[in-house]
Amino acid sequence: MLFNSYAFLFVFLPITWVLFRFACSRHVTDVAIAVLTVASLAFYSYWNPPFVFLILFSILFNYSWGRIIEKSIDRGKSGKAWLYVGVAVNLCLIGYFKYANFIMSNAAWLGGWSWTTRDIFLPLGISFFTFQQIAYLIDCSRGLAKEHAFTHYALFVTFFPQLIAGPIVRYDQIMPQFSRLRTFGLSYRNLAMGVTLLTLGLFKKLVIADTLSPWVAAVFDGSDTVTFFEGWAGALCYTFQIYFDFSGYSDMALGLGRMFNIDLPINFDSPYKATSIIDFWRRWHISLSTFLRDYLYIPLGGSRKGSMRRYANLMTTMLLGGLWHGASWNFVVWGGLHGLFLSINHVFRSVFPRRDGRPSFLSRVLSWGLTFPSVVVAWVFFRATTFSRAWDILGGMFGFNGAVLPPNYMPIAAGRRILEALGVDFYYPFSWGILNPRKELLFIFYCFLAVIVLPNSYEWSKAFFRRKRFRFLWAVVLGGLLGVSVCFLNRISEFLYFQF
Known about the structure:
By secondary structure, the chain is mainly α. The chain has helices spanning 6-25, 29-45, 52-74, 80-111, 126-141, 150-158, 160-163, 171-174, 188-220, 228-259, 277-283, 286-297, 307-325, 329-351, 361-383, 387-397, 410-421, 437-452, 457-466, 471-487. It folds into two domains: 6-186, no CATH class; 192-275 and 359-499, no CATH class.
């Protein structure tokens, strides 16, 4: 069931919210928790009902294993052996469904024997709920996850706003909220903020990301040679598509959580405003970058064992972070590029340490001018389905396939009008080919302004409550955005991160 569907917005969500509020009004908090848990399982089973048994097995196993780790610690033991077994079981689960064909096909290539790809259906959200529960087991081994009710744990894993594509939540972020009384009260502020974030997220997904989608496909899924402007137009379209698609989902997840008085962590903080790759990863997919830092980079040694070890740890972390996104070498290359960028960033900071005070405007502009194109170039490997297509697009972006200007490009159009006024026939021998420049470039420009100049969704939602005299105007604007978004509901499309 998609957030951007009639079934979810006009059937599932209202029924679930009413049942939850009814249980809360009767002061039966356990029933309210049960309502959300059952609704979340029904939400997950909507795509493929048999896979609800997979997530139930994962919940039962990890909850039971967490209790075993806790009892081992209570008996004075470290619990490390139990932790390693629990993590291994989770990795085997995700390894079979997500990476079995990838591992076997590469092993067959190295060994020189044949391998027929198996038809293995990838369960939705398996990367998210598996990593979430691995973090839970690690927290149990550290004594951070205290004893709690099974129903609370089940809701912690299955809570439908973040079940499919995050954010990846941790025990200390969510579990205490299931026990506090104000979670079960009626907060009009939370409800208003929830609807605000849900509306903004819907608009970002339906109106912006889905509009960019066919233009991205025209460049990345085609076979035509890509020229300079086509390459950059396609790469920028995908840069904005993945942001508005994934941040739109995250906004909706935060909004839905607020509607049920659950405060989910922010997953995006204007990442394309970043002035370094380090800054970018503090703003992009924050829950994943935090998970990789706390449960992989730091345990590997972090920066505690010298510079060379730090760079090796960064590269290892980002390579595995890339592989987390999918069973493809393209994702590994994307992660490796970001690992390289991060290492270069740290080397630069060690050679040229930052001075006290805020950097100058020129320094920030130059830093952004280096960071943003690096992110765009790396996205090419993330989106392209093959290495050859990625190289074709990069070749076009770096001018190896020519730099043909579109016929509607302003200087050419102006020159054409001047020549025509003088009675000279104008002939332009080239065509733009893949994209229609006037429409696409204008839309790219608007997207660029939105991500670089405007506040992000969370800042907009907070501004809604900041000044009372603007609330009516905000409500009218949000109502208009919601109305426009509903008009686009017939254009059904999955969120990009559903495939991960």
